[in-house]
Specification:
The chain is about 25% helix and about 25% strand. The protein has about 900 residues and is α+β, with helices and mostly antiparallel strands. Strand 1 (about 65) and strand 2 form a beta hairpin.
């Protein structure tokens, strides 16, 4: 049985490929020439991820790959590079390109009855079977893998190859039954033998690696599931199929818990687009096996084809929410194909309308990038005109033979309640106002609840910068609250919380969104955005609890004097959180602005497609705000920009802004809860927020905005964990603990495979002195200098050598450190761990033992310090490794993996100490 289509349906698609979709088939066949002619070679080395490999040395842009050119090219500046770490990264692209072309060859060989394609597919599959086990499963970044550095990449790669084998074998059976001319060909005679070799030497060992690493609700696990379902079916491994479709992190769970009720993926548009493609594979296989999820989950999956198009900006790019690439255009082949695959499942006028835009013949055509595409790993290109001939093999197998009449629909206001994103549009969709209030987005989410977005045409006034490179230092800036237009409390990035919708009402002439988020144990912040045709009102307020400092970052904005001149800051440091992801590390040219007016004038200017545009602003705060200025990073690949930061310190307060994009507002006045907006024609709009809505009085008419949520869910207790630590396992002092298998946090190798590493930890307290000793009986003693530059990523290089991580909480003081012995001395170098402070100051020494080392640490703590808790982590390296092999964790780590943990540690893991 074919994994994707019934054999009869598959046979029928040959007619479609030969007629309605012939231009698509011909294009794919032409692009397959390098593989058919043997002009490409399978990489001999494992792909290596570093900070510089594959990125432009001048601007950091991801370079462009061409399978026929060993050089990599920068799409921004045109720089061409080759050699060194670039060559070590290139196999990442090349492996995926080849795997996708093997699948192209299988599909085209089947649909076009092309023996050369079939022969080529089997040839490359056989080469992979002979080579796969030569790739080392070592030094990976995110899960075990042989050809790659992350498990999900191997899943995408293997999925292409499994689908190719399945198609080739099923067609071989069909042609045998039909007496096809191909039946007696040498290629067909080798089908069974080749298939067996590929199963035994490639698919079996690869799927075992993939099955060893479960990533829960991550978008990456979607691809692991797709590979497990496909390989499990091909290998008749019911255990793999069951796990992929119905396991704790399988298809059903993802549809129920990760794909939200409005059809959007919880990690935002960028990961929705990636995850939904993976869900399509798993869903298609499940339906073929007669194991489709419940109808309501299938409807949710089908809604997922539409969900990302609902939040498009006016220039048809996606908002760069969370860990997204910046300004990704929808005018790319994979988005058109998503529409086609959705329409293949059910009628949806929204998808038809989007295809009308994407297939608009008036849009300029550029290189679509399909010739160099790398399977389902995204590579974004500039916007281009599209036709059905630009799609992929999926459309050859699934797209409708003929589309209905394509009619574009205006982009309208919308609300994605499960995602927590409200949108108000004006000017036929040319004006976009969004309030991103809801789901935190998990590990790829940013601390930006109640973030305001404003775009007019192709100008992004209040923007979300997304994320640049995961291995660059700038990642921490883009993951800060300060990088967004979201409320910042006490100079620290927001905790991971979900916001709650309070009201949404759209009446055309006016509309509003109101939501709140619990940004501290005792402080809930509410933001209300009211949008008319030519200006908006933005109200941020907070009440109750202790005194807090609330700031509202404004990017690309200048503060004006009463005479309309740009105010210059008086040099002064801007105080804020000390952690990199609080964002203040990235501020330069800081200063305080001499602001004395009750209502502060602001202005922003930007060049649009045809002319300069201007945004006028007015802002008032009660109590009065202090105003600060700095320079900081722009969006990835863009110039740096200015930052204005109004800050109010109070137990309760309000900041109200008015922003006009059409130059219609003359002045603004705020008196209590009443706001007066005077237009340049002399007319006045009076705004007032009421308990159950918002009223706008304009001339002799009144607009009442309602839409209040009757029973908004209060998630504050569940989501705010500021400084909280759950009661864990306690240790009575003095304590002696031998760390072994149950304490091991692994990478590719299990504890036994890693050589059964152990360590002995002793902890004792004598008055105010806390002593911790760590003895590692067997160690490579590969100590990496604490300040050595890390060529791989933005984590400290020293975590990849031997050493100790210590975390202590002593009453109101705490500290976390990475401790590394200095070879040739008794000294121990140290650095403060990410997310921890240096309030406590340890003293440490070390000495070598026969085959290992011993490290002693002393800390002074208050005699009455409560709570008193700690955790000790021992990094385990090896002489043959570039990254650490694993960790021994005092608090225990059964079933855990070491990937992406750096020197971070959850305070809730600390063990309470008692005498």
């Amino acid at each position: 049985m074919s994994l994707l289509l019934d054999d009869m349906v598959l046979a029928g698609r040959s007619g479609v490929a030969a007629s309605a979709l012939r231009p698509l088939a011909d294009g794919l066949l032409a692009e397959l020439a390098p593989l058919l002619e043997g002009r490409v070679e399978i990489p001999s080395e494992k792909a290596l991820l570093t900070r510089t490999g594959g990125r432009c040395p001048h601007d950091g842009t991801m370079l462009r790959f061409d399978p026929l050119d060993p050089r990599l090219v920068c799409p921004v500046c045109g720089t061409k590079v080759q050699g060194g770490l670039h060559d070590r990264f290139r196999p990442y692209w090349m492996q995926l390109w080849i795997a996708e072309r093997v699948l192209h060859a299988a599909v085209l060989g089947v649909l076009l009855d092309d023996e050369r394609c079939v022969d080529t597919a089997w040839r490359v599959l056989d080469e992979y079977a002979a080579r796969y086990l030569d790739y080392p499963n070592r030094d990976n970044v995110l899960g075990p893998s042989r050809p790659f550095f992350s498990t999900y990449l191997e899943s995408i790669w293997l999925l292409q190859l499994v689908l190719a084998v399945d198609l080739l074998e099923s067609v071989g059976r069909n042609r045998t039954q039909a007496g096809s001319q191909l039946t007696s060909s040498p290629t067909h005679q080798l089908t069974r033998a080749n298939g067996s070799s590929v199963r035994d030497r490639l698919i079996e060992p690869s799927i075992e690696i993939i099955a060893s690493y479960d990533e829960g609700l991550s978008n990456r696990q979607v691809w692991n599931n797709a590979a497990l379902a496909a390989a499990g079916t091909l290998l008749s491994r019911a255990d793999l199929v069951d796990r992929a479709l119905e396991g704790p992190s399988g298809l059903r769970t993802h549809l129920a818990d990760a794909l939200l009720g409005d059809g959007s993926w919880y990690e935002g548009e960028n990961y929705h687009l990636f995850a939904h493609r993976g869900l399509w594979y798993a869903m298609t296989i499940a339906e073929r096996l007669g194991r489709a999820p419940d109808d309501h989950l299938r409807r949710r999956f089908d809604d997922g084809f539409v969900a990302p198009f609902r939040t498009l900006l006016p220039d048809l790019t996606y908002p760069s929410r969370r860990d997204s690439q910046y300004a990704v255009s929808v005018r790319q082949p994979r988005f058109a194909e998503s529409c086609e695959l959705g329409l293949a499942r059910r009628d949806d006028p929204r998808l038809v309308g989007m295809l009308a835009r994407l297939y608009d013949p008036l849009i300029e055509r550029r290189d679509t990038g399909r010739r160099t595409s790398t399977a389902d790993v995204e590579s974004n290109r500039p916007a281009t005109g599209l036709t059905r001939a630009d799609l992929s093999w999926r459309s050859l197998l699934f797209a409708r033979e003929a589309l209905p009449p394509l009619v574009a629909h205006p982009l309208q206001s919308d609300l994605l309640p499960a995602q927590g994103f409200g949108i108000l549009r004006r000017d036929g969709g040319a004006l976009f106002v969004g309030l991103d209030y809801g789901h935190s987005g998990g590990g790829h989410g940013h601390p930006d609840r109640l973030n305001l977005l404003l775009s007019d045409g192709d100008v992004r006034w209040f923007d979300d910068p997304g994320t640049g490179s995961y291995v660059d230092e700038s990642l921490h800036w883009y993951r800060s609250t300060l990088a967004h237009t979201a409320p910042l409390l006490d100079g620290r990035s927001q905790p991971r919380v979900h916001g709650t919708l309070l009201a949404y009402d759209e009446q055309g002439v006016a509309g509003w969104i109101s939501a709140r988020a619990p940004l501290a144990d005792d402080c809930s912040v509410r933001r209300s955005v009211v949008v008319l045709q030519d200006y908006l009102v933005d109200r941020v307020e907070w009440t109750r609890g202790e005194e807090h400092d609330l700031a509202l970052p404004l990017h690309g904005v200048a503060v004006l004097s009463s005479r309309g001149e740009v105010l210059e800051p008086e040099p002064s440091p801007v105080e804020g959180g000390a952690e990199r992801e609080d964002g203040f590390w990235y501020l330069t040219e800081t200063g305080r602005l001499p602001v004395f007016d009750d209502v502060v004038r602001l202005r922003a200017e930007a060049r649009g497609a045809t002319s300069m545009q201007q945004l006028d602003g007015w802002m008032a705060a009660m109590p009065r705000a202090s105003w600060w200025h700095a320079r900081t990073l722009g969006a990835p690949g863009r110039p740096e920009q200015s930052l204005v930061l109004p800050r109010v310190t109070s137990r309760e307060g309000v900041i109200v802004g008015v922003w006009s994009w059409h130059g219609v507002v003359a002045s603004v006045a705020l008196a209590g809860d009443t706001l007066r907006v005077t237009r340049i024609d002399g007319s006045v709009d009076t705004h007032a927020r009421h308990a159950d809505g918002w009223e706008i009085v304009t001339g002799r008419s009144s607009i009442i905005l309602g839409g209040a949520v009757s029973d908004p869910e209060d998630q504050s207790e569940q989501d705010v964990q500021v400084g909280a630590r759950t009661a864990g396992r306690a240790l009575s002092l003095p304590a002696r603990v031998q760390l072994g298998e149950e304490h091991y946090r692994r990478s590719e190798e299990s504890w036994r495979e890693a050589g059964r590493p152990t360590a002995n930890v002793s902890i004792e307290r004598e008055g105010t002195l806390l002593r911790i000793s760590v003895t590692v009986p067997r160690s490579a003693r590969r100590f990496v200098a604490i300040d050595e530059e890390n060529p791989f990523d933005n984590d400290p290089a020293a975590i990849h050598g031997d050493g100790v991580q210590l975390y202590v909480e002593a009453g109101e003081r705490s500290g976390g450190w990475l401790l590394v012995p200095v070879s040739g001395s008794s000294e121990v170098s140290m650095r403060v761990a990410e997310g921890w402070s240096a309030e406590l100051r340890p003293r440490a020494t070390w000495y070598a033992t026969g085959d290992g080392y011993h490290l002693d640490v002393e800390l002074s703590v208050s005699a009455d310090a409560v709570p008193l808790a700690l955790d000790v982590l021992v990094n385990v390296s090896g002489p043959d490794r570039a990254r650490r092999r694993g960790q021994l964790v005092l608090s225990g780590a059964p079933g855990e993996f070491v990937y992406l943990r750096s020197d971070r540690h959850d305070r809730q893991r600390l063990l309470a100490l008692g005498v």
